[in-house]
């Protein structure tokens, strides 16, 4: 029998492969090129660590986290807040809580000030406060509404009197902040400025320490203290930094009658280096040699009292 030759012969084996049998014509060449090292998890947009990185960058850029309502718990703290006229949105009382004079007083004050009183189950209060140490009572306080620095300057100018402000640098204790607010209000100051980061904020503790003056004296919060100091200088303010070893003391400085900003640092760290370099004057407070330093709120009160005296004498 004759052998059949050629591709189309009856005995030829058919291939099951589809498409080209010899290479891809260069169409898959790009797919063979290496893509480099695998990106870090925080650089992959679909990864949870990428979201954490974005949140970290947002905080580090100077923007603070969104303020939330604060819950003050315990009978004595609630009474103190109500006496200090801290703004409150509601009073929560656990159902079945034993009544006493403090609870009755809190309820009476809330009724007088038209603050809603709500009864809740104990497990609800535990969830709202994060613990069971609330003594069956809690006062909800809304976030503090901070002012803008330039609005504070405008208010002082509209009042047709030289402005007097306090900038707090590295003050992390809310009791210090509250005491400074109280001193600024007592001696005719126009406002307090605090940084957004690494600083105490106006919480219920600061409200109570201010003895209610936080309701009337504005507090501004800024992202950059150095830039704020420079803005005050451009507006004609003399910036006085309180620190040891200055060229002036409280006895020799007579510029308290001019528009002035007093910069106060923490008792331990003092004023940060960059802020200190931008102050017009560095001033110290004379005191007994064996006392190293003063608490920030005490130092603020001493300087504000002297500047208020100079302003009264100039009238």
UniProtKB/TrEMBL annotation:
The gene is rlmB. Its EC number is 2.1.1.185. It comes from Corynebacterium minutissimum. GO terms for molecular function: RNA binding; RNA methyltransferase activity. GO terms for cellular component: cytosol. Residues 1-67 are annotated as: Disordered. It comes from the Bacteria. Residues 71-147 form the RNA 2-O ribose methyltransferase substrate binding domain. InterPro entries: Alpha/beta_knot_MTases, Ribosomal_eL30-like_sf, rRNA_MeTrfase_TrmH, SpoU_MeTrfase, SpoU_subst-bd, tRNA_m1G_MTases_N. It holds the Pfam family SpoU_methylase. The keyword Methyltransferase applies. Belongs to the class IV-like SAM-binding methyltransferase superfamily. RNA methyltransferase TrmH family. Residues 54-67 have a biased composition (Basic and acidic residues). PANTHER family: 23S RRNA (GUANOSINE-2'-O-)-METHYLTRANSFERASE RLMB. Keywords: Methyltransferase, Transferase. This is 23S rRNA (Guanosine(2251)-2'-O)-methyltransferase RlmB. GO terms for biological process: methylation; RNA processing.
């Amino acid at each position: 029998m004759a052998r059949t030759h050629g591709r189309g012969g009856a005995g030829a084996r058919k291939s099951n492969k589809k498409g080209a049998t010899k290479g891809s014509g260069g169409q898959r060449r790009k797919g063979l090129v290496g893509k480099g090292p695998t990106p870090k998890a925080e650089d992959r947009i679909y990864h949870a660590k990428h979201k954490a990185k974005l949140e970290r960058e947002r905080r580090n850029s100077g923007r603070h986290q969104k303020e939330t309502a604060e819950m003050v718990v315990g009978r004595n703290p609630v009474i103190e807040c109500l006496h200090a006229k801290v703004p409150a949105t509601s009073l929560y009382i656990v159902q079945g809580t034993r009544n006493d004079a403090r609870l009755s007083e809190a309820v009476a004050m809330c009724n007088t000030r038209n603050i809603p009183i709500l009864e809740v189950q104990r497990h609800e209060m535990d969830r709202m406060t994060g613990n069971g140490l609330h003594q069956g009572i809690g006062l909800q306080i809304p976030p503090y509404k901070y002012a803008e620095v330039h609005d504070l300057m405008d208010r002082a100018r509209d009042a047709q009197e030289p402005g007097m402000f306090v900038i707090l640098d590295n003050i992390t204790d809310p009791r210090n902040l509250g005491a400074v607010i109280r001193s600024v209000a007592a001696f005719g100051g126009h406002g307090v400025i605090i940084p957004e980061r690494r600083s105490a904020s106006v919480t219920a503790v600061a409200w109570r320490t201010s003895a209610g003056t936080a309701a009337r004296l504005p507090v501004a919060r800024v992202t950059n203290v150095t830039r704020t100091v420079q803005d005050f200088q451009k507006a004609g303010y003399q910036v006085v930094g309180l620190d040891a070893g200055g060229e002036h003391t409280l006895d020799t400085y007579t510029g308290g009658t001019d528009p002035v900003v007093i910069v106060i640092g923490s008792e331990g760290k003092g004023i940060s280096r960059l802020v200190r370099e931008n102050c017009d004057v560095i001033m110290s407070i004379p005191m007994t040699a064996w006392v190293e330093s003063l608490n920030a709120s005490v130092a603020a009160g001493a300087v504000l009292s002297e500047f208020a005296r100079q302003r009264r004498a100039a009238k």
